[in-house]
Amino acid sequence: MNIIKNELLKEEVYHEKLSNNMNVFFMKKKGFTKKYAVLATNYGSNDLKFISPHTGEEIKVNEGIAHFLEHKMFEQSDGSNAFDRFAEIGANANAFTNFNMTAYLFSCTERFYEGLDHLISYVQSPYFTDENVEKEKGIIAQEIKMYDDNPDWKLFFNTLKAMYKVHPNSIDIAGTVESIYKITKEELYSCYNTFYSPSNMALFVIGDLEFDEVLKSVKETVKDEHMFEGEVKRIFELETDELRTKEITEELEVSIPMFSIGFKDKLNTLGENTDIMKKSITTEIIHDLLFKKGTALYEELYMEGLIFGGFSSDYTEHTDYGYSIISGESKDVNKVRARIMQAIEESKINGLNEEDFERIKKKKIGGFIKLFDSIEFIANNYLSYYFKGMDLLGYYEALLDIKIDDVNERLKEHFTEDMSVLSVINPKLKS
């Protein structure tokens, strides 16, 4: 057993790797009535090509299969649904799939160990048949069509499509109607037996519990099936610093034009030798200093009526991609984009304000500490960081170490015209 401590946060995480290679993490939250567990696999919609650890063959699967697999995991061989058992014990359960992770979770105040046993059991018991796979295709097809009509969703994925030529994160997490209708039960089992191996999964439990009891319960439930040593060998086509296109415009049922400006990380800022956490924090601080509510740029654009209340900006990072997105609504998208680019260039020349930097840094430190009151935030983000090779508890020290020079350097490196794209959703013209 390993104990990961953070003296500044006064938090600690217990960690043990089981004999079947699954990693189990636990954080005690004394006095909390809610208990929470999330069982996740280092597998998401981006994992479309891989080498089977069982046969050694190269496999290419259909787009949207990770999300499809998540849906099918709840169906049990006895005809019941995994949610039914959670409801019986008074637990709230859910699941999600993103580009890089699939997670199954539940929370409750009582009968926690019954819920934990059920969580581990059903995630280890896939039940795919030709009939239930075919039935699911219609359900997911409707979900895809619903998102195709969602302006925010289309705006986001059009931004990714403009930035990335070959990387799979430009593909909708749910896939396409065409791709999901090609999915078979054999393909689902192939992905399950590869990515749902214990060595590719991790469990995080948090609450007013004891680690010995948690570990005992887990060890009594987990199986050794599909076990193999080492990491899954994923195959990715080499992305370049080229953009697919500088601009994508689409018309949908919106009243005001929506826009999204994307900045794609260059290849030399990615890879194993990159300090992902430092890169992420410095970029977050730039967003706080230049674009978010309360900044000079935001206030000017808002007071001039160029943007409205939905203006937002964020940075997303992973080992093999990273991007910033600034989005909102405006009747003059080109003018807003020009003002944003002007603010970036002026900040590069003059440098970011050091007093504002220190203020934002203190604000982020306080906000991060406050987040440790949320057991859901801790568990979900701990595993997300873990799969990226980072420790969530290390975020605090990394944030403390950031200097204004680090932020100014990142500003010049990341926010460049040659790596920027524009996605626009215009109101559909009336016929």
UniProtKB/TrEMBL annotation:
Domain Peptidase M16 N-terminal stretches: 58-176
InterPro entries noted in UniProt: Metalloenz_LuxS/M16 (IPR011249), MPP/UQCRC_Complex (IPR050361), Pept_M16_N (IPR011765), Peptidase_M16_C (IPR007863)
Domain Peptidase M16 C-terminal: residue ranges: 182-363
PANTHER family named in the record: METALLOPROTEASE (PTHR11851), ZINC-DEPENDENT PROTEASE (PTHR11851:SF134)
Official protein name in the record: Zn-dependent peptidase
Species of the source: Acetoanaerobium pronyense
UniProt lineage: Bacteria, Bacillati, Bacillota, Clostridia, Peptostreptococcales
